[in-house]
Amino acid sequence: MTRPDRSRSDLRSLSTLIGPILLIIVAASASGCNPDESPPFKEENERLRKQAVKQESVIVSLQEGNKVMQQQIDLLNRELREAKKETERVEAERSAVAATLGTKVAENKKLAAEAEQTAARKAQAAQTLRVEDTGGQSEELPQALAAVGKAAEEALARNGYTVRVSVKTDQKAVYVTERKVSAPASLEVSGFRNQYLVSLQTLPSKGTRLSVKADFEKMAQGGRILAAGPDETAEIEKRLIAEIRKALAPGKV
Fold first, then answer.
1. In which domain, by residue range, is 147 found?
2. Rounded to two decimals, what is the model's pTM?
């Protein structure tokens, strides 16, 4: 077979194949069918679309949940910081109160010890304080010991007597004056020197027993000492008691 004959044979075979292909294409075009719009593909696309929407909704929900969770975590952290600060403040206050309380306890113990020592000294002084007032003048007064003691100090000072020694307890008080000297005014008028011992004792009735003893001597010119009789000494003692009662008068105590 010659070459032209072979070419014509190939063309006839190609024409035979192209015909059916064109027919299929024309038929498909005429029907207007889209592979994606066929029922199986359409249902699958719809299912995938719904699944994508659902997954997107889940993702959004998770993001919102994470946001809320982070806010809660931040809030808890802030509350923890505030609670820590409050705990530290309370602990500092507790430490300060404990330190103050410790100081107060120590001070109270010290004061209690001092009070106990003072009470012991007063009790000892009350036991050892003994005044020899035999021969003196005494009188019971309704006023308390403190008031009588104050009146005695005023009466002694008003009459020129300086207290040399004074001992006071809750139940007793003793005053010893300096010796007061008055020079003789003339040959006929003698001078004197005198010293008072005043003792006070609280009575069961809450009143006070006042005792006065005078060491009274008359003095002539030249410093010569003259004996004083008991009546003269008693009179001097009674005068001081009268002065103390005067100081105790209403409006003066």
1. 137-247
2. 0.48
